[in-house]
Amino acid sequence: MSIIDLTTQTKISAVPPRAVIVLGFFDGVHIGHVSLFDEAKRLAGELGCAKIGVWTFDSKGPRRGLTTTWEKCLLLKNYGIDFVIYESFDEIRDLDGDSFFGEHIAAHSPAAVVCGFNFRFGKNAAWSADDLCAFAKNSEIGCSVVPEKKLGERTVSSTVIRRLIESGEIDSANELLGHPYSITAEIEHGAEIGRKMGIRTINQRIPEEKVRPKAGVYCCTVTFDVNGNSTTFGGICNIGSRPTVNDDPKDITVETHIFDFDGNIYGSSVTTRLYRKLRDEQTFDSIDRLRAQIESDFRVAKETLKEILI
Predict the structure, then answer these.
(1) Distance (Å, rounded) from C-alpha 245 to C-alpha 223?
(2) How far apart are alpha carbons 178 and 273 in whole angstroms?
């Protein structure tokens, strides 16, 4: 188990006593999760608690997620969470409900716990949110279950958001997330084909554990350090294998042109935030046609970013 103090981004040895602890996986840290955090803040005020924490676990399965561990911690901090308890799923997956609650929740002496309506725990996910409340009551720990969150007719869930991203519906995914879907990775050297066309680009790889957006061209912003200051620029990126200039369909990159920037940031870690898919990835029969399409894409991306980021 790791306990991370989000205020210092360091590991600590013990959970603060009488905290309000929110339980869940929190992939994406979306607007449904924010409802849980809001309820935790309400309870903390009512009970006079100084700290709000999140209990979660790692995921080493084949499914790609919306956030890396680092991204999840950063988002949790931004939403006012003070600390995170990270458990190994392998250590809790076969526990019965009573052992799970007693050894992994009540042992931290929380004042209250909060979960979503669909929270499940214990071996084979056999125990429900109602069972959690029953265990909590027996231990004189407060418990609150937050109902389903909807945006219009659409249920807010990590599963729904993953499907939207995989289908290229970034606008809709971002609405449910409450923030733009992002990819943070170091810049790699590419084949410099863009440079030869007079169009400078940066190249990134999508982290293996992250959901991969549908191949295509997206308007985006990019954030990185310039002279020690975090700076954001508009941009346009192609996610895919670049079939006009690359014969390997499995060679997936995020290739981005940054508007109004001409510096050298090779080796830097860059966060690319996606806002809207402009078109599918295409194969062109010549470099000249590719260049003409790119120039058209630039105009559309700049206008789209003006509209979205107003």
Answers:
(1) 27
(2) 13
Enter the tokens of residue 141. Answer: 């720990």
Q: In this predicted structure, what is the pLDDT of residue 188?
A: 86
CA distances from 115 to 46, 181, 211 (A): 17, 24, 25
Q: What is the mean pLDDT of residues 220-242?
A: 92
In this prediction the pTM is 0.91
Sheet holding 112-116, edge to edge: 10-11, 2-5, 83-87, 52-57, 20-23, 112-116, 142-146
Contacts (Cβ under 8 Å, ≥6 apart) of 36: 22, 24, 114, 115, 116, 146
If pLDDT is split at 50, 70 and 90, which confidence band does 290 have?
confident
- Distances in Å between the Cα of 35 and the Cα atoms of 30, 214, 220 are 9, 29, 27
Say yes or no to pLDDT of 24 above 80.
yes
